[in-house]
Structure formats: C-alpha cells, structure tokens
Design a protein that fits this description.
Layout (H helix, E strand, L loop, with lengths): L2 H34 L6 H33 L15 E4 L2 E5 L4 E5 L2 E6 L4 H6 L7 E4 L2 E8 L1
Parallel strand pairs: 2-4
Antiparallel strand pairs: 1-2, 1-6, 3-4, 5-6
Helix pairs in contact: 1-2
Length: 150
C-alpha cells in the first residue's frame, strides 16, 4: 500500500470523526435546550417548541447514523490486493481529476493533490469500477482517461 493512500484514508477518517463529533455536540445542545425549557403559560407555544426540538434531534440522529455508516465503510478498506481492478480503497488518477473509492465524503486536499472521495454506489463510482488503468470511457458527456489506479 502506498504511503499516499494510507494518508488519504487517515484524512477521510479524520473528516468523518470531526463531522460525527460536531453532530454529537449539536445533538447535546438541542437536548440540553429541550430539557432546560420550562413550561410557559402559553402551552401551545411550548408544545410547538418541544416538537421542533424533537424533529431537530431526530434529524441530527439520522445524520450521525449516516456518517457512522461511512465510518464503517472506511474501516473495511484493506490495501492487500494488488489487482488492476478498481474497487473499494482504489485511488484513481484521470485526465479530469483524482478519485478515491471510499465513501461519500467529498473533496480532500492532500500533498498538493485534490482528491474527490466518492462511494462505490455513486454513478461515477459504479462507472469507474467497470474499468482499469489506461481505459477510456465517457461519463455524463465527458471523456475520461484512467491514467493510473492503485
């Protein structure tokens, strides 16, 4: 496994850890605010406020679950195989940018390289996994050339 891919995976894990922590902090704040709210004389207003807080808690909880799923995917990545096929954990250089098949994380800048971290289930991820280094293909009207994959 290349040192770059190790650093890239570590960066992805750090991004997810940071997002989960921020979401957990926000959830704690919303929960504390709901617990500290006292019932006012305007009962309907109080009930509406509580309902809004519960919806926010549910939304934050669902986001945490989604990021934990991404974390689980990253933990499954092993760099033991040396095949030419593109799969989970592959780093791909193309004429239209660099990609890392790892999860739905987005753009990461590492060692002067911009890398889009995409999931295997994304349309581009599905398309990339059908190819290998030196292949050319069209995706959404754009011609791609795979310069290298590892």
């Amino acid at each position: 496994m290349s040192a770059f891919k190790q650093k890239l995976l570590a960066s992805c894990k750090a991004v997810i850890d940071k997002k989960i922590k921020a979401l957990n902090d926000a959830l704690t704040e919303v929960t504390d605010a709901g617990n500290n709210e006292t019932k006012s004389t305007a009962g309907d207003k109080h009930e509406t406020g509580r309902a809004m807080m519960q919806l926010e808690q549910e939304k934050l909880g669902n986001q945490i679950i989604e990021w934990e799923k991404q974390q689980t995917i990253l933990n499954k990545i092993t760099f033991n195989n040396s095949s030419n096929t593109i799969s989970l954990g592959s780093f791909i250089e193309t004429n239209h940018g660099n990609f890392f098949i790892a999860g739905n994380i987005g753009k990461i800048n590492l060692e002067d390289k911009e890398v889009m971290v995409i999931s295997m289930q994304s349309p581009l991820g599905i398309c990339l996994m059908k190819h290998k280094a030196c292949d050319e293909f069209e995706f959404n009207g754009v011609n791609y050339r795979l310069n290298r994959s590892e």
